[in-house]
Amino acid sequence: MQTKEREFQQVKQFLMEHDDFLVVAHIQPDGDAVSSTLAVGWLLSCLGKNYRMANEGPIPRRMSYLWEAEQIVDLSLAPLDTKFSHVICVDCADFKRVGRTAEWFADDALILNIDHHPTNDAYGAVNLIVPEAAATAEILYDLLKYMEIPLNFEVATAIYTGMLTDTGGFRYSNTTPKVMAIASDLLEYKVDGPGLSELLLEQMTLPQLKLLTRALNELQITEDGKISWVVIQDGDMKETGAIHEDLEGIVNYPRNIQGVEVGMLFKVIHESAVKVSLRSAGKVDVAKVAQSFGGGGHVRAAGARIEGDLAQIVSRVVEQVKLQL
User: Fold this and answer.
1) 104-151: per-residue pLDDT in tens?
2) Edge-to-edge strands of the sheet including 227-232?
3) 78 contacts 91 by C-beta, under 8 angstroms
4) 303 neighbors 250 (Cβ within 8 angstroms)
């Protein structure tokens, strides 16, 4: 049996042999994380399994259209009433990315780890890691097909959402012929492709526009024009009324400057911690840069949380990118 088929068989066995699952994704979930959580929930419902879905913090408001989205428990508002012995982690590149949800894992919990990040360290008892997949949602599409579970409009919309957002609207280099074939299949279930693109990729909130304006006013670029970055201070979020999801896409602006190889967004968390998001035009493996600071991700998109002073962090990250260049 080939390795990938063996992994799918192990996942199927895990799902069939156990019950009472907790399904979680990474903190500050994006489109793929939310969609994958719900796709797994839908799969478990088809199998007649008991499950809960949870995350540290809210899901993006613009994804409220997804099936059962309101059932994902925001643990910052409402803790769960039990601990779980069987956990399914989706789109989590490493264990610490599950955040506070780990507090509801039993000490002897068995974890099923489904992910597409090449930096994933296989922390599960069962691991289904497919780095060549454009999104974790793509892996779940393959899993549903493997388990011969028919799709419907709800799960097709969830999978399409995950793939749409993680490929930048089918524009990034991870948009393979397989991705387009899957998207074509999902559209057969009446998924509103144009509507989702407008909602998820085109529309901006007013606070998001104000935040972007502030960021671009302080845009920095190296003398050789190959590295550019913007900074979001904590005060910027408060004064514009922006929330975390309003940060989505801002990192692409410095990267999209002609000649820039790496664009970055530095988001101040508090006076001694910064979240950096990195995007590459193709020549630099930003996952390696992120890993050097304890983070991870993909060749072209990665991130890390770094403790320290903002100015020093910016200097250190820029120097590390220069080394990669």
Assistant:
1) 999 999 999 999 999 899 999 999 999 999 999 999 999 999 999 999
2) 220-221, 227-232, 262-270, 273-280, 301-307, 296-297
3) no
4) no
How many Cβ atoms sit within 10 Å of the Cβ of residue 56?
21
**3-state SS string for 113-167:** EEECCCCCCCCCCEEEECCCCCCHHHHHHHHHHHCCCCCCHHHHHHHHHHHHHHC
Continuous segment of H or E residues that includes residue 23: strand 21-24
Gap between the Cα atoms of 162 and 92, Å rounded: 14
Between helix 136-146 and helix 177-187 the angle, nearest 10°, is: 70
Q: Is 205 exposed, middle or buried (0-12, 13-18, 19+ CB in 10 A)?
A: middle
Name the helix (H) or strand (E) containing 267: strand 262-270
